[in-house]
């Protein structure tokens, strides 16, 4: 049978309280992640993570473009939201949240290194020009099912889930383990609808633990 892995998306300081691109209540995902990590460890299931990992002059940064943060423009032919500088490689903001039980994480996949394109999905950049090591790694370990949660619902979680489904993974999303940027009210709800419509199964942590006890 195909193995299962828990994929923790971008639970990094910059998306949490006091960070450069704070997601409201982002820290609340850590406790959910730790409970799922405990559940995985008890079953010998794999835990992995993704990490937004930008060079300091990344093209998605408003400062680099001389634009206002949270407005949009074009980056190398693609529509792009301009973000505050965030998750710069080797800075504290890019580190995974300190309360996350990181000793359980067997591999961490970095993305967003290419200055010319943003990378919301943990599998591909936004135009699928390049691929991370994630899919090859999962294939190597015969992982066919993913439990996905993290930050942010309406960006990196959403695109990671949609790519995982396209690649043929069975995907469960733990909704209370996610929080969104919510540039527009309802973005997170719409993101969950898009994920469900594409074939993901949505669970609360409580439901997940009850169904898989
Ligand atoms: C993310 C915006 C910019 C995310 C990353 O992890 O959802 N959002 N970079
Ligand atoms: Zn980013």
UniProtKB/TrEMBL annotation:
Pathway: Cofactor biosynthesis; nicotinate biosynthesis; nicotinate from nicotinamide: step 1/1. Pfam families: Isochorismatase. It comes from the Bacteria. Its EC number is 3.5.1.19. Keywords: Hydrolase, Metal-binding, Pyridine nucleotide biosynthesis. GO terms for molecular function: metal ion binding; nicotinamidase activity. Residues 5-206 form the Isochorismatase-like domain. Gene3D superfamilies: Isochorismatase-like (3.40.50.850). It is an enzyme of class 3 (hydrolase). CDD domains: nicotinamidase. One of its GO terms (biological process) is pyridine nucleotide biosynthetic process. NCBIfam families: PRK11609.1 (NF008623). Belongs to the isochorismatase family. This is Nicotinamidase.
